[in-house]
Specification:
245 residues; three-stranded parallel β-sheet; Helicase, Ruva Protein, domain 3; single chain; globular; 13 helices; 3 strands; mainly alpha; 3 domains; Rossmann fold
Length: 245
Amino acid sequence: MLGLGKTTLAYSVYKYPSINIHFHVCAWSCISQVYEKDSLLFDIFDQIVGKTIRSHETNREDFVQKLYQSLKGRKYLIVIDDIWDIKAWNNLKGPFPDDENGSRILFTTRHRAVALETNSIPYSLRLLSPEESCELLWLRLFNGETCPPELSTISKSIARNCKGLLLAVILVAGILKRSKRKEDCWEHVSNKLVSLEASDILEFSYKHLPDCLKPCFLYFGTFPEDTIISASKLIRLWICEGFVQ
């Protein structure tokens, strides 16, 4: 399911020092619905070896062998985010040696059927309870301060309408931060959430952005999916585009 926090949790595990230190090499890549096998493997190779190789510089068989040899005998952690079909993994797994040395490959997927085909026990993220959703919403809105009494009931209703999705709570908190702290304004948001699916909430949040910020948001579309973007670099790019001053 979309919006549970799978990628966030996987990235936290991937970056956690006491986990990371147990592996000789680590790599992270996103596969998603549409992917290019060679590009994904080149990206993993770049992270492991620290050397960039492109498709015109080597043939596929030689490259796959180079990747295999770079991992052979080493304890590695590979994270592949957002797998939609087990066939994708079957198509990719050739260069990853199974030396039974504690190496790990971590998948994230929104499809339980895919997780069950990996011959391991999947860790399923649960939905937030209404109470947890409300607690997170209040934390995002009031920074640990008490929710005003006049907004308590409507904020609980909004939290329930987020349907237990972490992403929905965070996005809706962003909308409410830009709204007046009035019950009728928040009631409009609550009513709208009732009819929205998880995939619609991002669009709903985008529509509530100020017009001056919408180009900044859309600019993220120029980066490959799951790219880690330097904030300072992003600001400079926005300035160059004339989005901000």
